[in-house]
Amino acid sequence: MELKKMTVEAFIQETSSSSPAPGGGSIAALNAASAAALIEMVAHLTIGKEKYASAEPEMKEVAAKAASLKNEFLALIDEDSNAFNKIMAAFKMPKGTDEEKAVRHEAIQEATKGAALVPFKVGETANRLLELADIVICRGNANAVTDGAVASMNARAAVRGAFLNVKINLSSIKDAAFVADLTEKMAAIEKTVDAREQALLGKVKL
User: Fold this and answer.
1) Number of domains observed in the structure of the chain
2) Which tens digit of pLDDT belongs to each residue from 12-33?
3) What is the domain-level CATH number for residue 36?
């Protein structure tokens, strides 16, 4: 069964088992999906309210974007675990001859690149959620402002968690250019993500 189609309890129990997947990467994708869902919810709670009539066009746009991202992150929950399983499959390839060893090594490297690219996509995309969270916190239904705040925290956690999973995979990749490219892109996002989250939380006045 696809992870995203499990009950919440089943998914959590599977995560806590001795199986290494789903792991941190899938959880990061789940955090991002939860953040997108909360943003979409706040937008829906704003639409149709007379008090927020002027914000309705923007909220409809936010709801649509958040819904699309939510579905993307749900798919990435499984993609991350599948990428890890491909590494495990590559390690099980035969290595009795020099040729087999070379093929196995290349397969491991390619699978590891895939396992780095999936959480990178999670983190890079989750960073975009902070902009949507800002909109619903500032102009959405004030009764749901804390939901927007939780969304921003989950989005930051998704970025940080996903990038940790990228980094552990990069440590096994021999392609220096590939490693340098992802490292540079992550650093640019990490430089601002914490401050962006704190700025959003600072806008929540209770």
Assistant:
1) 1
2) 999 999 988 899 999 999 999 9
3) 1.20.120.680
